[in-house]
Structure prediction request, 191 residues.
Amino acid sequence: MALCFPGSQSAAGRAAQHANFFRSDRSVRFVKATDTRTGSIVAWARWNFYVDGATLDQTPWPKEWAEGTNVPCVEYFFGALDRKRDAFMKGKDFFLMGVLVTLPEYQGKGIGSSLLQWGLEIADEKGVECWIDASPMSVELYKRLGWVEVDHVDLDLGKYGGEQGIVDRTVCLIRKPGGGEWKVEGGTYYS
Prediction:
């Protein structure tokens, strides 16, 4: 992401831009985990619930990117992810697991899994699939919760001003309600 958004925008500026973006998106849901001893937020997740008439087409992408944004990189990367997701999810009700963040000192304690489980339980109740675009290092966590790898997007960093010969992979995964079985093109079954 640093390659897409290398600009000098301050953390406060990014927070304000994100807050405005998400306030206008009726599909977005945030859930957080707080350390009860300190009151500090130690993990949070952003889900989008594209059900009951809310669709991806209604997501308000910024009209202008912040100064310093690597626009060709952003347009390629997020456009490729959108096309992959559309190939599997267009026209369906589904949940998008958009962001999961856990402070390093709280990782490995099941906190991130509990934030995922929160959305998965609601998805199971509604009978909808879930989608996530994930870093390769997080894929095993998602698979343990019933997600199945269906595709990926490779970002050649050298094409967008990054280090030559380095490719950053993002993995696309789907979870059926209840983590049920389904078929991927080519005849391979996953559960």
